[in-house]
Amino acid sequence: MLTSEIKLDQINKFQQNLDNRKDSKVVERAVSHQGILASSEDFKAESNMHPVFSIDLSTGKVADQKRSGRCWMFAALNTMRIRLMNTFKVGDDFELSQNYTNFWDKFEKANYFLENVLKTADQPLDSRKVAWLMATPQQDGGQWDMLCALIEKYGIVPKYAMPETFNSEKSAQLNKFLNLKLRHDAAALRELVADNASADKIAETKETMLNEIYRMLVYTLGEPTTTFDFEYRDKDQNYHIDRGITPQAFFKKYVNLNLENYVSLINSPTSDKPFNKTYTIEMLGNVVNGRQVKHLNLEMAELKKLAIKQLQHGESVWFGSDVGQSSNSQKGIMDTNLYVPDELFDADLAMSKAERLDYGESLMTHAMVITGVDLVDGKPTKWKVENSWGEKVGNKGYFVMSDEWMDQFVYQFVINKAYLSDDQLKAQAQEPIVLNPWDPMGALA
User: Fold this and answer.
1) Measured on CA atoms in the order 56, 60, 65, 70, is the torsion positive or negative?
2) Beta bridge partners of 170
3) What is the SS3 assignment for 283?
4) Who's near 153: CB < 8 A, 6+ residues apart?
5) Which residues are the active-site residues?
6) Could you tell me the residue ranges of all domains in the chain?
7) pTM over the 0.90 mark
8) What's the CA gap between 174 and 400, in Å, rounded?
9) In terms of CATH, what superfamily is 49-284+291-442?
10) pLDDT-derived band at 3, boundaries 50, 70, 90
11) Beta strand pairing status for 278-281 and 295-297?
12) DSSP, res 386
């Protein structure tokens, strides 16, 4: 392969080409003063994304994850609170405690990380798997199956039973020092393995580490709730109280959701992931021996049909996407036609969905909830989305997603198995193919 440095005559040629463009100075002034997005925004997209939908579920007041990365958790709990709103008529501002599940997620992730440290202790520090582990021992993000694993073990509670703290709402400090602690512990465990320490010694040391981590979490997030009184007034102003209930009993009695019925479906059109096959990701999870992360890969047209069917039956849809692509959070619009930077720069910026995944341009970064869809002649044109960034963005916290945006930047849905076809159920039951830890389908929302 021939290689060469940039030459001065090339630069002169490039500048001359630019000078010959009649609009170059106009574009330069606009972009340098207003930025790329504002200069390339197509205002027609805003009128096309009018927030009216033929199917529109009532889901209550939008929650706010503040300065934390717990969108997957907020989105999942938002799908569950609808059941309490519909069945028990709790108020529109009712929320389930995100801090409660956050506490147990942090604690379980710490144990999951230490177990993976021991599994890879025979590998050199510069091996790709060990380097991947140490890059981020734990973080706020997660996936649907990981939340199911937490709820199956610990249950859930109303928000007032374990409210937010400084560290749950602003998680940077906790993540910094928890990851410092985990890397410190990783070094100690790897040294024990290298010194051929006994299994009992390693287990004793790990228990001491977990004890210290538990203490850190209680100091920062509060002591986890074990029993509480479920007390509320319904929308008809009737008073209710259920005394001394546990988080597990609360989930079973008031949410009453069989989590086994809800499965993860993905759209990954890359050559390494044939459709109608299931996949899992090595070293991705939180609860050791808990629910496995498992995805069934389907074509997007099939996913849309399933999402519409679930909405028609009154159930919202948890989904994962790359929210930073072609979106305006203040206006609450996600649309591939919102910005046209390729026209602005007169440069080819087009990539297929598969290419974006393969070359690191896109992956799942954020989880939200689909609560409505606009069907025209039976086909979706736009979707209503409940976000978790509070009411100051979008339409009181709700966004509009174009159908084309869904095609390009949505990667994951959670669907009730009742809506899957027989062939899809058979495919979902397959033993999953194990993907590398760094696979984009292992990204945490």
Assistant:
1) negative
2) 67
3) coil
4) 104, 108, 287, 290
5) 71, 366, 387
6) 49-284+291-442
7) yes
8) 33
9) Cysteine proteinases (3.90.70.10)
10) confident
11) antiparallel
12) E
Element housing 262 (H / E): strand 262-266
Neighbours of 270 (CB within 10 A): 17
Residue 281: φ, ψ to 5°: -125, 130
Can you tell me the distance from the alpha carbon of 96 to that of 3, in angstroms, rounded to the nearest whole number? 59
Q: Determine the longest span between alpha carbons in the chain, in angstroms.
A: 81
pLDDT at 150: 98
- Phi, psi of 375, deg, nearest 5: -100, 125
What is the dihedral sign for C-alpha 76, 88, 386, 69?
negative
Assigned token pair, 273: 């992931």
DSSP-assigned beta bridge partners for residue 411: none
Q: In the beta sheet, which residues pair with residue 56?
A: 372
What average pLDDT score do residues 381-389 get? Answer: 97
CA–CA separation, 63 vs 58, rounded Å?
A: 14
pLDDT band (50, 70, 90) for residue 2:
confident
Tell whether the model's pLDDT for residue 399 goes beyond 90. yes
Q: Looking at this protein, which amino acid is placed at residue 441? A: M
Q: Which residues contact 119 (CB under 8 A, 6 or more apart)?
A: none
Q: Is the pLDDT of residue 45 over 90?
A: no
Residues in the chain: 445
Residue 216 pLDDT more than 90? yes
Q: Strands 333-334 and 366-376, how do they pair?
A: unpaired
Residue with tokens 């934390």: 68
